[in-house]
């Protein structure tokens, strides 16, 4: 790995070129999304752009992060809508009142950061926060689906907005719907299109760009009617984006006259909590995918975001948040320092000045479909399935918070969700209320320093979200690079948020050279097989192997392999493969190990849990894979079935030096497989006639070489025992073939 980029102005001078290139891609995504977020929040469109510019320029000057991108994000939509609804007194000043709340919330954020209270975000239960985000997704969808259909719902109820979307479907404007559907198809299939021309621009910009020809074709510039199957529909300038000619005309100022009302402070607290939690969670998520493994100073980051939020609110902008999608794009496109965030802010300013005449030709439904797509992803069936996979109780917290938020507001939803989780923990722990809180705050957890420089962290009592700040103080006493044994055997209950904290700490400590072991959970039970699921100790009975684990254990005994069902958190080696380089790996488990006799090649088959995306938008996947350690060097490449290109196969490789390699002598093989790498001649030499025949005559797996080992897996699912045995047969034949190569 390259050396860590320099900080400050030295980093600016050293990396300006790579940071600027990355910023171009980020700004092209930020431009349509910032406008769309503002419109979805019921704010002037330019307030989103102002927020993105301030987030780029001001936040960069004082921040705790290294490579994240700041600006408006979907999380602010719900809180701005809430504020406008609560403080609308008919004077036309509703958004100005909200701007005042934005300024005050930013000032409180600065204070929290200066008081080093950034870790407070950890105490909010993760499933509750996911419930809030799902509710925000539904709110976005319910509001924007009407814009995408050309209909209108006057109801203040989100549920009624959804009902109206169905009942008003026959009244939808077909000329608006055509544009929205075209945009939706682009969003769905952009990543699957292999033609590089379509990857010049990010998907949101294509949606915007390709909507403009429809505007000319249907002539949205003049108010008139168009006929569709004999029925007339109104089209005109009201369906287009309306932004001022001069950016200075977009400046708005806060009105503090509502500062003595409960509505004002409800808005302030809602903005403060949602933006702080999301920003800090995303900051930690960005650290995980930072190729240089730098760590964000959360307190400084909170202060910087607060200062930026104050600045944005004073001139008409939305609250500032660290944005996961833009941060990920920033990293994927080679950004190295914080200055890429500054560049994207300045580029946005340039784009909106230069492109404003073009942007006024974009239909509102194009922005709406971007938000409809985003809102659906936040509350899609896959999200519910993922939460259910973490435990039945997590689904209860998630759904309870989501419903409460939809029928009340974000603040009540958050507090109600936390109360629901707390009461559930009390019932599951089966102890009295006084004893429950004693087991949280006076549990007797302690840290012991051992003579060899390692540490034993003994956690006792109730280990849930309320106890995270307490364990954080103990963990702060452990030096970087030290080995740590975390013993949970004397806990009554271990919550999911608590496990999230411990696993995050484990990964941070391992990055500094320390080994961390989490044990003591063998006698705990849970409602899910998820390793971070809520666990309760009701008796001292040892955990039993599942039927699948029993079969794997029997296979190991029969074939003289090594097998362990314990979780292995050491997944560092998998990061040497491109597929996992940009996908956070959670853990390995059910590890089967052995050596192919006579070949001097070791192998490991394991269940691996990894995520796609990050923070609140991440999806978790489980797959069984094989790592085959070779006895010779081979080229670095990836191999996949041609034409499949599922979303988990990384098309980013095409822009990081990898390219599709064809074999002229074997046209059928080239049509069947997509082989990518950056040293074509070496790869061509490796794929001899024997190797090509082997792959043509065997089952197709995703296969990737890092030069000294191969990672092999089939679909993104756990393998059955017979599939595991097929892995072994496949791996042995391939290993034998490679061993015989000169």
Task: Please give the structural blueprint.
Elements: H1 8-40, H2 45-61, E1 69-71, H3 75-87, H4 94-114, H5 126-149, H6 158-167, H7 174-189, H8 203-218, E2 224-228, E3 231-235, H9 262-289, H10 298-314, E4 321-323, H11 324-332, H12 339-359, H13 364-378, H14 381-389, H15 392-407, H16 410-429, H17 433-441, E5 446-449, E6 455-463, H18 468-475, E7 484-494, H19 496-511, E8 516-519, E9 535-536, H20 547-559, E10 562-564, H21 578-581, E11 585-596, E12 601-612, E13 619-629, E14 637-641, E15 659-660, H22 667-672, E16 673-677, H23 680-686, H24 689-696, E17 702-705, E18 709-713, H25 721-740
Parallel strand pairs: 6-7, 7-8
Antiparallel strand pairs: 1-4, 2-3, 5-6, 7-9, 10-11, 11-12, 12-13, 13-18, 14-16, 14-17, 15-16, 17-18
> In whole angstroms, how far apart are the ends?
30 Å
Strand content: 5-15%
Number of strands: 18
Helix content: 40-55%
* Quaternary structure type: single chain
Helix segment tally:
25
Shape, principal axes of CA atoms: globular
Mean pLDDT score: 89
Summarize it.
This protein is of the alpha+beta class.
What characteristics describe this protein?
742 residues, alpha+beta, five-stranded mixed sheet, 18 strands, 51% helix
């Amino acid at each position: 790995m390259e050396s860590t980029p320099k900080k400050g102005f030295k980093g600016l001078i050293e990396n300006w070129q790579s940071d600027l290139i990355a910023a171009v891609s980020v700004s092209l995504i930020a431009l349509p999304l910032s406008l769309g977020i503002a419109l979805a929040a019921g704010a002037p469109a330019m307030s989103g752009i102002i927020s993105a510019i301030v987030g780029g320029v001001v936040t960069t000057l004082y921040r705790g992060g290294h490579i994240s991108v700041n600006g408006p994000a979907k999380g602010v939509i719900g809180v701005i809508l809430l504020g406008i609804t609560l403080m609308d007194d008919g004077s036309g000043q509703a958004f100005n009142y909200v701007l005042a709340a934005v300024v005050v919330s930013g000032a409180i954020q600065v204070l929290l950061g200066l008081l080093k209270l950034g870790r407070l975000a950890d105490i909010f239960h993760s499933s509750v926060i996911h419930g809030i985000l799902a509710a925000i997704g539904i709110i976005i969808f319910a509001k924007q689906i009407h814009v995408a259909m050309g209909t209108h719902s006057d109801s203040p109820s989100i549920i009624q907005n959804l009902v109206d979307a169905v009942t008003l479907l026959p009244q939808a404007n077909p000329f608006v719907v055509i544009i929205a559907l075209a945009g939706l198809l682009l969003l769905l299939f952009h990543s699957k299109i292999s033609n590089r021309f379509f990857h010049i621009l990010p998907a949101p910009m294509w949606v915007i760009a390709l909507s403009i020809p429809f505007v000319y074709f249907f002539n949205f510039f003049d108010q008139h009617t168009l006929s569709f199957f004999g029925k007339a529909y109104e089209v005109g300038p009201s369906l287009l984006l309306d932004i001022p000619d001069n950016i200075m005309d977009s400046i708005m100022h806060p009105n503090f006259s509502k500062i003595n009302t409960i509505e004002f402070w409800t808005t302030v607290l809602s903005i403060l909590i949602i933006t702080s939690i999301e920003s800090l969670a995303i900051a930690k998520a960005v650290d995980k995918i930072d190729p240089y493994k730098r760590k964000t100073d959360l307190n400084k980051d909170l202060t910087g975001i607060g200062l930026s939020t104050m600045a944005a609110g004073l001139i008409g902008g939305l609250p500032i948040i660290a944005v996961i999608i833009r941060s990920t794009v920033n990293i994927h496109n080679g950004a190295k320092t914080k200055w890429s965030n500054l560049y994207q802010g300045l580029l946005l300013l340039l784009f909106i000045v230069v492109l404003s005449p073009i942007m006024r030709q974009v239909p509102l439904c194009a922005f709406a479909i971007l938000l409809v797509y985003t809102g659906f992803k936040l509350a899609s069936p896959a999200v519910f399935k993922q939460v259910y996979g973490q435990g039945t109780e997590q689904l209860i917290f998630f759904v309870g918070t989501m419903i409460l938020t939809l029928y009340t507001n974000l603040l009540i939803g958050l507090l109600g969700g936390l109360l629901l989780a707390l009461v559930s923990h009390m019932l599951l722990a089966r102890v009295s209320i006084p004893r429950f809180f004693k087991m949280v705050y006076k549990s007797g957890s302690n840290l012991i320093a051992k003579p060899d420089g390692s540490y034993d962290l003994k956690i006792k009592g109730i280990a849930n979200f309320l106890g995270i700040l307490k364990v954080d103080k103990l963990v702060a006493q452990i030096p970087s690079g030290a080995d740590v044994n975390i013993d949970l055997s004397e806990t009554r209950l271990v919550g999911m948020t608590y496990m999230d904290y411990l696993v995050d700490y484990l990964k941070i400590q391992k990055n500094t050279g320390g080994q961390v072991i989490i044990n003591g959970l063998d006698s705990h039970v849970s409602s899910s097989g998820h390793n971070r699921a809520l666990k309760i100790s009701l008796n001292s009975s040892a955990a039993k192997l599942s039927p699948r684990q029993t079969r794997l254990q029997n296979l190991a005994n029969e074939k003289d392999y090594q097998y362990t069902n314990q979780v292995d958190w050491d997944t560092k080696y998998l990061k040497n493969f491109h597929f996992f380089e940009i996908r956070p790996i959670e853990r390995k488990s059910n590890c089967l190990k052995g050596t192919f006799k006579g070949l001097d090649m070791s192998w490991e088959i394991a269940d691996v849990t990894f995520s796609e995306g990050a923070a609140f938008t991440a999806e978790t996947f489980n797959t069984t894979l094989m790592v085959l350690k070779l006895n010779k060097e081979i080229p670095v490449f990836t191999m996949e079935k041609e034409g499949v290109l599922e979303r988990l196969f990384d098309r980013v490789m095409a822009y990081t030096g990898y390219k599709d390699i064809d074999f002229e002598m074997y046209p059928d093989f080239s049509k069947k497989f997509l082989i990518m790498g950056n040293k074509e001649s070496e790869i061509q030499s490796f794929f001899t006639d024997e190797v090509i025949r082997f792959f043509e005559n065997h089952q197709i797996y995703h296969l990737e070489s890092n030069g000294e080992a191969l990672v092999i897996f089939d679909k993104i699912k756990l393998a059955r025992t017979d599939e595991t045995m097929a892995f072994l047969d496949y791996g042995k034949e391939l290993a034998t073939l490679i061993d015989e190569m000169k």
